[in-house]
Design a protein that fits this description.
- Helix content is about 25%, strand content about 0%.
- It has 1 helix and no strands.
- The radius of gyration is 12 Å and the shape is flat.
Length: about 45
């Protein structure tokens, strides 16, 4: 959560308010393999 502002700023450079996809932010104590970001998605074909 300490990096949320920085991540949100970069995210805003890729999407505008009208076309931004849904997203989630979840705080966890430790992720596998000591990664800093976990990404989940929903794909529709």
């Amino acid at each position: 959560m300490n990096d949320f502002g920085a991540i949100n700023e970069v995210y805003g450079t890729y999407f505008d308010d009208e076309n931004a996809p849904a997203r989630e932010t979840v705080q966890v104590a430790v992720l596998p393999k000591r990664v800093n970001v976990e990404i989940s998605l929903i794909a529709v074909a």
